[in-house]
Amino acid sequence: MTPDTTTRTAFWRGARDCGPFLFVAGPFGMLFGVVGTEAGLNIAEVMGFSVVIIAGASQFAALQLMSEQAPTVIVLLSAIAVNLRMAMYSASLAPHVGGAPLWQRALIGYMNVDQTYAVSVLKYEATPQMTLSERVAYFFGTCLPIVPIWYAATLVGALLGQSIPTEWGLEFAVPVTFIAMIAPALRTPAHIAAAGASIILALAFAGLPYNLGLMPAGIGAMIVGAEVERRMGRSFTQPPGAPK
Amino acid sequence: MTGWSAGEIWFIIAALGLATYVIRFSFLGLIGDRALPEWLLRHLRYTPVAILPALVTPLVVWPATADGALSPPHLAGAVAAMGIGYWRKSPIWAVVAGMGAFLVVRAVM
Question: So where does this one cross the membrane (chain B) (predicted)?
């Protein structure tokens, strides 16, 4: 196959692998549109949140605090704290797609969200023989069922506004998506140890305000996973280009 | 939105959008394909399984709709999604099982 066909195949494979999350990005985006409109934002402002920020959990966090008339600095800091995990996504993607041209990395940065990141990085680890252009195409493929759907669903939610009952079970859409990403990724004892530590630490730090417990819990769990891997004496998955 | 002018709302959107973009682009932009030390890569491998459970746990244990109490539908949905997702190694079946358990338990309560 020519490089052109293999990248096209990788793109559609990414779109297909990320496809299930369409059923989460859709309802979740719609929910933001509904809740944002009910909170008193106009359609342009609701769309501004989804297009400019494009990070559901922090959008809801900001909206919640704005409704509570929190000071601007608190709104910003707590919503940013929710997104700090994405710095680790960025670092974790760098060994796989860091060799791409700047404009591609700039676009990947914009669309580097939980679902596209998790689906892509798990694929890269499982398939180390992918070429750089296949990896980039695969990432853009994973964005297809997420990014346009996120915009469109927000708009639909904002237009429907208060006519949608919020009793549809949409509140469970967020946790269930994340669990659906985690469970199949628990491939080794080290992954299971990291996830277990993450849950325990999240419960232990739950008292901290503004979601600040997320970072210490996440970093602690990464240390547990890495330490279990080191003690078991082998690298479970060696990313391409990693030093031996 | 009461208490917020259009200017303040757009300031929050722009500031939050810029900060979020800088966070997401950070390492991809600065490091490119320069090699990272092995100890760091070993930690980064666990990023998804370390961060996502910490994000989910409070949403399941203290859901906003339950006013701080444990919610059986949320717990049942989480256990079902985790169990089926781990067993079938499939995100879609995890969502179906989790959503199904959540809705069934909520309906019978």
Answer: 12-32, 44-65, 91-108
